Amino acid sequence: MELAAKAGLQTLATRPFYEVVIVGGGPAGLANAVYATSEGLRTLLIEHHAPGGQAGTSSFIENYLGFPGGVTGADLTNRAVAQARRFGTEMMVGQPVMAVRREDPYRIVTLADGAEVSCHALMLSTGMAVRELEVPGIAPLVGAGVYYGAAMSEAALYRGQDVAIVGGANSAGQGALFFSRYARRVTVLVRKPGLSPPMSRYLVDRLEATPNIEVVPGVELSEAQGNGHLERLVLREVAAGTTRTIEAAALFVFIGVSPRTEAFLGFVALDAKGFILTGPDLPRDRRAWPLERDPLMFETSVPGVFAAGDVRSGANRRIAAAVGEGSAAIFSVQRYLQTV
Ligand SMILES: Cc1cc2nc3c(=O)[nH]c(=O)nc-3n(C[C@H](O)[C@H](O)[C@H](O)COP(=O)(O)OP(=O)(O)OC[C@H]3O[C@@H](n4cnc5c(N)ncnc54)[C@H](O)[C@@H]3O)c2cc1C
């Protein structure tokens, strides 16, 4: 928060009440903001870290409509922030929303510093985060040989070298195929005895048909070693408990994502993986949905509280999808506000 203040960013809400409060400033939250304020709604957006979310960290986005030559995540974010501000969105950056509650007709958010802001419609657009690998030696080597996800821009750095991948789902398979175009050898480390499932059969077949990919099942990473940069990985055989060491210049981690719903636990209904249920996906019983009317599109189990983007159960997890959901959700907000 202090950093945000030093950078001249707004860190406090200027009013106690807004018609709409948006939690999260990724593509979904920024689209919420542009569409809410362009419809004349008094809107506050609260972002924990920096606007842009996951998309803001992308080095080059090639599949976003309207940018045939691609666009960096930073450029797309700057444009969206400027657009939201131009329409009058208040944007608070630097502290998370810690809790939310309902005091009809208000929805109230509590910030990390204890301040509270109330609203009529609350939008949860908090996205998701990559799951971190909690293994000795990993943390100091992140960015120095250890990368989360398919770090496309890093692939060329490891041309002709040996790299490893942790994970057994489709994202790991796609990553392995991608890195096999650059690296001398790609070793895929999988804790389960085999790959399929959860990896799709077509990917397993392609991995098996690629000469410089080796899949090592039944192992888990027990340590990463290196002096300022990754050099070696210590592997533990799950069944035998024995350890061995392999050389690796880079490690790409694909062990899944987790929704950013920690502040909403027990408040809105979630699916088995912790993503927020909305609209027609809500179970049809009184405990999950309390009103006679049907939930609106993007409305959660709490009337007047909406969710959009990657945090929503069933979301497509793409930038264009998050922007589409973020803008469409405001239509539901407007319909809800007519009932308050
Ligand atoms: C490296 C990378 C590259 C990608 N490249 C592409 C691509 O090329 N094309 C594509 O279509 N998709 C891409 N994606 C996926 C895309 O970025 C996501 O689908 C999209 O960002 C989802 O948007 P969102 O707004 O729903 O969530 P997010 O982008 O996750 O944003 C959520 C925001 O909410 C904030 N937040 C969370 N909790 C709180 C809280 N309690 N209080 C306040 N703020 C909170 C977070 O700090 C974050 O800024 C990429 C993802 C990554 C990680």
Would you mind describing this structure in some detail?
The chain has 340 residues and is of the alpha/beta class. The chain has helices at 2-6, 27-38, 53-56, 73-86, 152-155, 170-179, 201-208, 319-337; strands at residues 17-23, 43-47, 90-93, 97-103, 106-111, 116-124, 128-130, 146-148, 162-166, 185-189, 213-216, 219-225, 232-237, 243-247, 250-253, 257-259, 305-307. The chain has two domains: 2-130 and 257-337, FAD/NAD(P)-binding domain (3-Layer(bba) Sandwich); 139-253, FAD/NAD(P)-binding domain (3-Layer(bba) Sandwich). 22% of the residues lie in helices and 25% in strands. The two termini are 33 Å apart. The relative contact order is 0.16. Flavin-adenine dinucleotide binds next to helix 2, strand 2, helix 3 and helix 8.
The CATH superfamily of the largest domain bears the name FAD/NAD(P)-binding domain
SS field, number of helical segments: 8
The percent of residues in helical segments reads 10-25%
| Number of separate strands | 17
Taking pLDDT < 50 over at least 5 consecutive residues as the criterion, the unreliable ranges are: none
Order of helices and strands: HEHEHHEEEEEEHEHEHEEEEEEEH
CATH domain class name of the largest domain: Alpha Beta
- Report the sheet-strand fraction: 25-35%
Class based on secondary structure composition and strand pairing: alpha/beta
Radius of gyration: 22 Å
The distinct ligands, each listed once, are: flavin-adenine dinucleotide
**Overall mean pLDDT:** 93
Question: Strand count, sense and closure of the main sheet?
Answer: 7 strands, mixed
Overall CATH architecture of the largest domain: 3-Layer(bba) Sandwich
Tally the structural domains: 2
Q: Could you say what the CATH topology of the largest domain is called?
A: FAD/NAD(P)-binding domain
The global form is elongated
